[in-house]
Automatic annotation (TrEMBL):
One of its GO terms (biological process) is mitochondrial protein processing. This is Mitochondrial inner membrane protease ATP23. InterPro entries: Peptidase_M76_ATP23. It comes from the Eukaryota.
Amino acid sequence: DPYARLLLEALKQSGCTVFNDRHFSCENCDGCVSGGFDAATSQIVLCQNNIRQQSHMNRVVAHELIHAFDHCRAHVDWFKNVKHLACSEIRAANLSGDCTLMNEIARFKFGLKGHHQTCVRDRAIRSILAVRNVSKETAEKAVDEVFDACFNDLEPFGRIPHSKADAKRAYRDFQNRDRYTANL
């Protein structure tokens, strides 16, 4: 999957190499949660009882790898600062493919103008509510306060990958990012 390949390479370049047997765990989870990032163990949890399709698995892995990337590069305070959590959830919804047009159509959500931003905002709020015991108003306020900056932070992709083809281009660009300056 090009999303995962890019994120794994970005993590490695940031000094946070991911090892499949150490950093991924498949578990049964409560409710309709598909996965999570455990900051205490730097482990991605995949909910084997709630993921039924490879495409869903790919999105969950990409989403959680974005959290791992944020944890590595930004030292996110996951437990005490809801704005940090909101920022990473915005980035994960924006960059993982969660809000692609096809996924939104599959959810029976339609819209043209500003639909991607609306999807990202709504999914970030839902994710915060799923992992923290805060009110909906607190989650909405945190998302609104950091939305613009975090939505526009496209690292390590450099663009919003709206499809696998976009993710492949972003991966190719990522691989070549330092090629010009390395030859100077």
